[in-house]
Amino acid sequence: MDGFAGKVAVVTGAGSGIGQALAIELARSGASVAISDVDTEGLAVTEERIKAIGAPVKADRLDVTEREAFELYADAVVEHFGKVNQIYNNAGIAYVGDVEVTPFKDIERVMDVDYWGVVNGTKVFLPHLIASGDGHVVNVSSLFGIFSVPGQAAYNSAKFAVRGFTEALRQEMQAKRHPVGVTTVHPGGIKTAIMRNSTAAEGVDREGLTNTFDKKLTRTTPEKAAQIILDAVRKDKARVLVGADAKLLDVIVRITGSGYQRLFSTVVARLVPNAH
Ligand SMILES: NC(=O)c1ccc[n+]([C@@H]2O[C@H](COP(=O)([O-])OP(=O)(O)OC[C@H]3O[C@@H](n4cnc5c(N)ncnc54)[C@H](O)[C@@H]3O)[C@@H](O)[C@H]2O)c1
Hints:
Layout: E1 8-11, H1 17-28, E2 32-37, H2 40-53, E3 57-61, H3 67-81, E4 86-89, E5 95-96, H4 104-132, E6 135-140, H5 153-175, E7 180-187, E8 199-200, H6 206-217, H7 222-234, E9 239-242, H8 244-256, H9 260-271
Parallel strand pairs: 1-2, 1-4, 2-3, 4-6, 5-8, 6-7, 7-9
Helix pairs in contact: 1-2, 1-7, 3-4, 4-5
Bound molecules: nicotinamide-adenine-dinucleotide (NAD).
């Protein structure tokens, strides 16, 4: 895989999972990479692996919810590399809990990281991407940004919002003839630490849920996911579905319209009875 020689790419949440795989694959494809995460230990692992490839890397602790820090970070990355071509707004958290029992603050936290983190990253880097003459915004939504399931109202809200924001942005860039591609990413189940790192409402069997997620719901490796995402960026696709599960469920939702809700709630109740 190549095609990113001379490009500068920024990846948030690069200390684990999809973000780590994206950063490494970008480095292999010739890009210079600015990586960040709140998990500095995981980030150090990613940094070492990129150094071993021989690609230029800048690693920083960054919480994507901290807007002012994000603004300063964007300036620092541009100063370091001289430009920025691509931002991968990937950092995210999972949460499980029915609306009835989920405290307001938990819904706000998921929106802060999963939605506002993406908005912050997009807005602080957008002027630089336009100035680069060859920019790309890659925002990670989810299959749960295409359909909803019980127990995921907070996460579903954030991921639907990421999709709405990103699809509007793509049209704006095209209307203004700005040299910036925009891609929304909808991964299905990817083998990462996301459920192990998740939080949940009181009474949810998080351990049981993590086991089910790890054993039954994830088929795609983060490395494969990164390759699929980078391929979509090369082709400037508006939307990329990652994994066979994502492709199949997207078709079911399109065929059934709102009818999927009756179907999926039954399936979810059987598959993860301890989710809500
Ligand atoms: N794994 C899946 O099945 C799956 C499916 C659909 C979408 N996604 C999305 O993919 C993205 C990456 O998730 P992953 O599966 O690699 O999970 P992961 O938990 O392995 O990695 C997420 C990374 O984001 C970091 N992070 C969390 N909060 C942060 C914050 N406030 N600021 C900066 N970094 C923060 C974490 O420390 C972690 O390193 C997320 O947006 C997630 O919602 C994952």
